[in-house]
Amino acid sequence: FILDNELTSEIANKVFRYGNEQKTIRYLNSRIAENAYVIKDYADYIGQLEADNVEINEYSLYPQDLQVAHTTMQRKTDVANRRKEKQGYEMRKSILEAKYVEYENENYIIRLPHSAEEFYRESDVLHHCVARCYLPRVINGGTVIMFIRSKRKPDKPFCTLEIHNGRNVQCRGKNNEVASNEVQDFVAEYLNFLAKPKEMIA
């Protein structure tokens, strides 16, 4: 299962940390057809349970509707943490800006979030967990999150991209839906752009 789904050790350890291994595999396999990112979502969900000190039992480990449980957990955010996140992201953004420049084609724009507040808005509008699960990792240098916008509505949340080691880890739209092929092609175009030597970009 781990090899077939190319799970990192971090995700595998989180997914199988609790509960029966075979039951967890059956639970995830039954949902992969409707959500290609279900394993990653489940790992995020387990992290949310741990962060909020929720009792780990059969009910919390295997929610009937993982998407609803995942979204409900991500909405619970501590105000004190937000204050720290705002400061932390400002420092991290100044480092990321040197590499992850804004880019556009005829239809889309890709850019770094301007502030921690934008992460919170992205989560609220698109109904996913980028603020709760990924903002802390961005601040700690564990991953990179970028926002994709339609040029027709550049201020409206559209798609959220995670990049790690120059690779598209996941690109999601509203309600965690996988981004369209057109958007995925734009992401590939951007990553190729980033991979070019700086003198070629200039």
What's the helix-strand series? Answer: HHHHHHEEHHEEEHH
Taking strands numbered 1, 2, ... along the chain, how are they ordered across the largest sheet? 1-2-3-4-5
Ends distance: 44 Å
Instruction: Report strand %.
Output: 5-15%
SS elements, strand count: 5
Using the alpha-carbon principal axes, give the shape: globular
Strand count, sense and barrel status of the largest sheet are: 5 strands, antiparallel
- Kindly state the percentage of residues in helix: 40-55%
Account of the protein in words:
The protein contains ten helices and five strands; from the N terminus they run H-H-H-H-H-H-E-E-H-H-E-E-E-H-H. By secondary structure, the chain is α+β, with helices and mostly antiparallel strands.
Describe the structure concisely.
The chain is an alpha+beta fold and 202 residues long. The protein is 51% helix and 12% strand. The protein starts with 8 loop residues before the first helix and ends with a helix.
Notable characteristics:
single chain, 202 residues, alpha+beta, 5-stranded antiparallel β-sheet, 5 strands
List the helices and strands and how they pair.
Blueprint: H1 9-15, H2 21-32, H3 38-51, H4 58-61, H5 66-74, H6 79-96, E1 103-104, E2 108-111, H7 116-126, H8 130-139, E3 144-150, E4 159-164, E5 167-172, H9 181-195, H10 198-201
Antiparallel strand pairs: 1-2, 2-3, 3-4, 4-5
Helix pairs in contact: 1-3, 3-5, 6-8, 7-8
